[in-house]
Amino acid sequence: MGGEAPEPRRLTRALSIGGGDGGWVPEEMLHLVMGFVEDPRDREAASLVCRRWHRIDALSRKHVTVPFCYAVSPARLLARFPRLESLAVKGKPRASMFGLIPDDWGAYARPWVTELAAPLECLKALQLRRMVVTDDDLAELVRARGRMLQELKLDKCTGFSTDGLRLVARSCRLLRTLFLEECQIVDNGSEWIRDLASSCPVLTTLNFHMTELEVMPAELELLAKNSLEEFAGGTFNDQGDLAKYGNVKFPSRLCSLGLTFMGTNEMAIIFPFSAILKKLDLQYTFLTTEDHCQLIAKCPNLLVLAVRNVIGDRGLQVVADTCKKLQRLRIERGDDEGGLQEEQGGVSQVGLTAIAVGCRELEYIAAYISDITNGALESIGTFCKKLYDFRLVLLDREERITELPLDNGVRALLRGCTKLRRFALYLRPGGLSDVGLGYIGQCSGNIQYMLLGNVGETDDGLIRFALGCVNLRKLELRSCCFSERALAVAILHMPALRYVWVHGYKASQTGRDLMLMARPFWNIEFTPPNPENARLMEDGEPCVDSQAQILAYYSLAGKRLDCPQSVVPLYPA
Q1: In the 3-class helix/strand/coil scheme, how is 318-353 assigned residue by residue?
Q2: Which of the two ends of the chain, N or C, has the fewest CB atoms closer than 10 A to its terminal CB?
Q3: Are residues 12 and 49 in contact, defined by beta-carbon separation less than 8 angstroms?
Q4: How far is it, in rounded angstroms, from Cα 515 to Cα 538?
């Protein structure tokens, strides 16, 4: 079969015509057709046609993402998909990235490694995200899969050390990707880097960005001799001492780069290959607004760019003028105490509008901004027709915002960006009225994931929102004014919802009204508010255990058995 891949749902209907068992379709054709069906929801629909299709889907499925580690057991996954080549498992809620989840919350990798590493005989790639991974887990993994493992991604994980990484490096000669970004790793020495350079000859991607692992320039040179195409993790410990790093020669094929603590004097190291870079991470550098402008002007082929808001509106204008192929843009918040980002006053509607007009290939935008208008959001809806994922956080540094509420701008963005599947909007009180919340519900028919913070005015706005979200599968709410009862009722109105997390609402001490949403296979975990700990952390946010939290999710594994004492599982009476 050549040409474009057939449309999956149309194939499902066509091949199922003529009999409920699909028996007239040859086995080879079914396997071929399944190869074109990549969307998990389409796969699920095809598997429900008949038992034969279900069996072929099970045997031919190459990759599965488990969106929450407590939603299914490893044993059940193995029975359903015994020939997986790639597996991704997500653990703690995203809120753990912001200190809102206790360290002992759970999400342990042990059962997933011990029960699946050996039985999944075809497994070549494993990704664990926001999970607790120990050195023993890594040892178990390499014993079972070391000879075949090609990709290991530990994303924002904790619990292991460089001893475990050294074992991976020595045992996995076919390893092509090692991803460790933002992991908390105990540093017992840099031998793992030398072992990686000598034992993994086909390594093309290495990322240990923001792990605090120390790597010397000489060790970077060892890695550079490999054909690395993506590298993130090098740290400039002595800013201004260019001679210390001047001898480091990056591979000629390098197209993705992320360096930590790079300053004005060091950025010249990037210039020789800046024109071929496709991905550049400048989030944790000491570059000024002017530095960003100079460097990005030399990177016309960027597809992915990550920066802090020190880039300013002026830097975003350079991005808009230079990076016409840009697909992903991330703008993180800077130092709230003042510093480099103060030079240009952060990012506002001016920079966002420039990006919308100049970078029309964008599929992903995540931005912390200081000011915003409805017009800027309308520009994104008008020009960014390929946008798949949009996330906006309005900082509270400025006393006055040019234009609030953002009801009309949000509606225009959602109407214009018809491919949008993931949407996050974290505003300030007054940023979105009940009317605007209703607009989100009306215009979000295709959105599957949503995070909302400081939105709406009353329970009525929440219910109006919920009535429109027919395909929403995952919802996160923060700093909202809604009652416990309204949250439970709203969740019942969203038929596709599989996961919801709420932090900061009008909570009771017992979570009694949450039982309104109780139903089979639906786990409800309640973290009661703790007024005695109602203090503020350094960033001004309430501490982790002062505000109530709700986590509710569908699970085929039953109630989990490793809840910490701070979490109360709720059961029907």
Answers
A1: HHHHHCCCCCEEEEECCCCCCCHHHHCCCCCHHHHH
A2: C
A3: yes
A4: 35
Please report the beta strands in 192-270, taking only residues with DSSP state E, as ranges in sequence order. Answer: 205-207, 230-235, 256-260
543 CB neighbour count, 10 Å cutoff = 14
- Mean local confidence (pLDDT), 277-299: 95
Q: SS in 3 state form for 289-316?
A: HHHHHHHHCCCCCCCEEEEEHHHHHHHH
Left (φ > 0), alpha (ψ -120 to 50) or beta: where does 135 sit? alpha
Q: What percent of the chain has pLDDT over 70?
A: 88
What is the predicted pLDDT for the residue at 52?
A: 84
What single-letter DSSP state applies at residue 470? S
CB 155 within 8 A of CB 185: no
Q: Quick count: other Cβ atoms within 10 Å of Cβ 391?
A: 17
Secondary structure (3-state) at 167 = helix
Residue 232 confidence class, pLDDT cut points 50, 70, 90: confident
pLDDT at 537: 47
Name the pLDDT band for 17 (thresholds 50, 70, 90): very low
> How much is the pTM?
0.89
Task: Say yes or no to pLDDT of 479 above 80.
Answer: yes
Residue 552 CA to residue 419 CA, distance in Å, equals 27
Q: 3-state DSSP call for residue 263?
A: coil
The 3 state secondary structure assigned to 82-131 is CCCCEEEEECCCHHHHHCCCCCCCCCECHHHHHHHCCCCCCCCEEEEECC
Cβ count near 13 (within 10 Å): 12
Q: At what angle do helices 312-322 and 289-296 cross, to 10 degrees?
A: 0
Residue with tokens 């790793």: 185
pLDDT at 320 over 90: yes
Q: Which one, of 142, 153, 193, lies nearest residue 176 by Cα?
A: 153
Which band of pLDDT confidence, cut at 50, 70 and 90, is reported for residue 23?
low
- Phi/psi region, residue 463 (left: phi>0; alpha: psi -120 to 50; beta: rest), is alpha
User: In which band, very low, low, confident or very high, does the pLDDT at 340 lie, cut at 50, 70 and 90?
Assistant: very low
316, 351 contact by CB (below 8 A): yes
DSSP label of 403: S
Strands 549-554 and 522-527, sheet pairing: antiparallel
Residue 457 corresponds to which tokens in the numbers above?
A: 């005015």
List of E strands, 328-464: 328-332, 364-369, 389-394, 422-426, 449-453
Location of structure tokens 């975990």: 525
Q: What is the mean pLDDT of the chain?
A: 88
Specify burial of residue 371 (Cβ count, 10 A radius: 0-12, 13-18, 19+): buried
